[in-house]
Design brief:
The chain is built from 15 helices and 23 strands. The protein has 434 residues and is α+β, with helices and mostly antiparallel strands. The structure holds ligand EPZ.
Amino acid sequence: MPAAVSITQEILKPHLEIQGGHTLSRELKVSGAKNSALVLMTSALLSEGPLELHNVPQLTDIQGMADILASLGVHVKRSQETVWLQADDLHHAEPPYDLVNGLRASFFCIGPLLGRLGHAKVPLPGGCRIGARPVVEHIRGLKALGAMVKVEHGVVTASVPGTSRRLKGAAIVLDCPSVGATETILMAAVLAEGTSTIENAAQEPEVQDLAKMLNAMGARVIGAGGPIITIEGVERLHGCNYSVIPDRIEAGTFLIAAAITRSIVRVSPVIPEHLNAVLQKLRDCGCTLEIDKQGITLIPGDLHGVDIITQPFPGFPTDLQAPFMALLTTAKGTSVVTEKIYENRMQHVAELQRMGASIRLQGNTAVVEGVPQLSAAPVSGNDLRAAAALVLAGLAARGISQVDGLNHLDRGYDGIESKLNASGAHILRHQPSG
Ligand code: EPZ
């Protein structure tokens, strides 16, 4: 029986203290997309020219990626939301384990290192709280492009045989539309000799953003955003200036913040077609949305339950499953939420239940009965999007909630409490020293 941890010790962890019941107003600002910026940064490895990235969110993972790239010899400079990168004297092809271990996205280095240098040695990204997160599809794709790949002692070692050390274009069919695998293969194939195709490719906006930037660097990628991507290999790439797309998951989280607090709020900037499945579910559960060029205004109605099934893009995004479930706990009637992408992404359910939510969990399906009011409680955010869901629930709950797990939350949201407070929320960050 684990030693009981006293409430004070629980509350001593860094946490957000949220006074529920306040409506939000005006506007919630969206930063650049974390899941685009991270992979765009690794593309700097593909060229000796300077890469200037704008609208980069200020997140712990971004600094983590900057440190990893610097360890490979990339010149990296950051100032607020701009990052300058230049890989004109790469001296390493093996990021150090201690840097890689904390950042799954570091595995994105393997494709560009292989494409640029012909060899790479990258620690296998571990699983995480939401699932095993295998990289089998990444490795299959690199092998198809002619690389020799072996996995031993937790390290993936890849090299291109032959004197040219240049990958060869290939036709690749993914077993599952993996976002990371599509991006790894894309970055490896742009410098390969000949043409490659990726079938059953991931269609997420972040894949499209990567392809768009690679083309701005001189690559020849066609079809990104659809199920078949064609890449015509080129000899070399040059640098470019590029601005990261707005974070659709942060935008969706903020739209849900407006809905759960029954507030009229504008969320901007956002690219509406990046969120169609979510916008449809917000309408289905009783919200009205006014869409303009740069943003979306949500007007809450009398909210009722809807069913959610997470799918690859353009389906409902798994990253908004937990935040949307928080909303459904306060909507009238029954909702069925099914997680189809990850094997263990229901850790927010127990915490929402502590706040008075009525949820029955059967495997990866949650049956939610809306309740008139959540009640504040100390709760734990056990993964990035679960933590976000609990912040949203805290905004609506009666009383003062404490949400810990800020180490997760700060990986995906740039200053979430400052943005919400600027719109009328009452959130205090407690970061006990020592
Ligand atoms: C990206 O992860 C995102 N992360 C995730 O965001 C997001 O949830 C996911 O795409 C799906 O949209 C980044 O972009 C940094 P996948 P990725 O490969 O690339 C299985 C967040 O909260 N799979 O599409 O790792 C895998 O097990 C994070 O911001 C295989 O089976 O996602 C999972 O069940 C979480 N074999 C599913 O595919 C493989 O070789 C989706 O994984 C690869 C993946």
